[in-house]
Write a structure and sequence with these properties.
The chain is of the alpha+beta class. It has ten helices and 15 strands. It starts with 7 loop residues before the first helix and ends with a helix. The structure holds adenosine monophosphate and magnesium ion (MG).
């Protein structure tokens, strides 16, 4: 008999069609902050879900206008122009993120250093140009996070010397993702994934199953080196393939050693898993600079943070918590 063939799923689908409520995953992707921003979420009500995605995208544009060093009129660009001369007052949000960056500098013994930009701005990845040795050596003393002085009383910043520049490229995307998650949670969303380039955070899971997050093979774009099943967590990857050019057989990429002012060698990618995106973003960049041994020992010292490192020979290194999770 015909009605017997109509399974409960189809009936449910029909019911939803009839009432006009379509529960499904909604998503959007836009180019913001020089990268791909993607939001995917589950909501019973399409209209509510779409409005939440739009709110996240708007906030990402706002953060870009505040913190981009490519935009002359951003708050951060103004800081870079004026803070060597006089204290510059900032918004609470920018002040807090710079404070957080300096804290990370302390725990990574200067591997993470937003003043890397004092030399970093001399590399141009679009034009494929790098500073001469002479120019680089002259700019190098301006890299030191201790040149950045923050005043909590009036949220102002001052640089100790001329030539200092800061750039939040190693932490701002994580911050933006955390803000996005807060916005979604305030709208009652319990299942979502938000990514800005290599920085992602998941709330809930994928309808009862974990999200399968791939760690890219650093030399083969479409291939995965590992897959991590994740829910309710943040994950960030830093890679030497994200932004780079090659010159005379040397790969000049975007993660700069504060000690030398040159791109870090020895590692191709670092993936860090933990609670919040701001910390994971800063940590993935930090571990990249610190190298396999020091980087892993930092990760081991932090509760609830794990890492996967792919070194220059393509070898994989895991923190102990991931090794435990992998064994049966
Ligand atoms: P990520 O993709 O999160 O690893 O961030 C890389 C970005 O961090 C670069 O594009 C720079 O904007 C910035 N960066 C590079 N070197 C450093 C460093 N040593 N400390 C902090 N930020 C850095
Ligand atoms: Mg990072």
């Amino acid at each position: 008999m015909y009605p017997h063939k109509v399974g409960p799923l189809l009936l449910l689908a029909l019911a939803m069609f009839i009432t006009g409520v379509r529960a499904e995953w909604l998503s959007d992707e836009q180019a913001i902050m020089g990268t791909a921003v993607r939001v995917e979420l589950w909501h019973e009500d399409d209209t509510v879900g779409r409005a939440a995605i739009d709110a996240v995208m708007r906030d990402m544009y706002r953060i870009d206008r505040l913190m981009s060093t490519y935009k002359e009129d951003s708050e951060l660009s103004r800081v870079n122009r004026e803070a060597a001369t006089r204290p510059v007052a900032m918004s609470r949000e920018l002040f807090d993120l710079i404070s957080r960056s300096l804290e990370v500098s302390e725990i990574t013994e200067g591997a993470f250093d937003i003043t890397y930009a004092s030399v970093g701005h001399l590399y141009n990845f679009r034009r494929k140009t790098r500073p001469s040795d002479e120019i680089l050596e002259k700019a190098l003393p301006a890299i030191d996070y201790r040149h950045v002085l923050l005043n909590k009383e009036n949220h102002s910043i001052k640089f100790k010397r001329q030539g200092v520049r800061i750039d939040l490229g190693g932490i701002a995307k994580g911050h933006a993702v955390d803000r996005a998650i807060t916005l979604l949670q305030a709208r009652g969303i319990t299942q979502a994934i938000v990514s800005a380039g290599g920085d992602s955070r998941i709330i809930g899971d994928r309808r009862g199953r974990p999200w399968m997050v791939g760690v890219r093979d650093p030399r083969r774009e479409k291939e995965m080196a590992a897959i991590l099943p994740l829910s309710d967590t943040a994950v960030s990857t830093s890679g030497d393939y994200e932004r780079y050019f090659e010159l005379d057989g040397v790969r000049y990429h975007h993660i700069i050693s504060p000690a030398s002012g040159r791109p870090v060698t020895g590692i191709r990618s670092v993936t860090v898993v933990g609670q919040d995106s701001t910390t994971m973003d800063a940590l993935s960049t930090s571990v990249f600079v610190m190298g396999v041994e020091k980087g892993l020992s930092l990760i081991e010292s932090l509760p609830d943070v794990e890492a996967v490192i792919i070194d220059a020979a393509g070898r994989m290194h895991y923190s102990s918590g991931l090794l435990r999770r992998q064994s049966p």
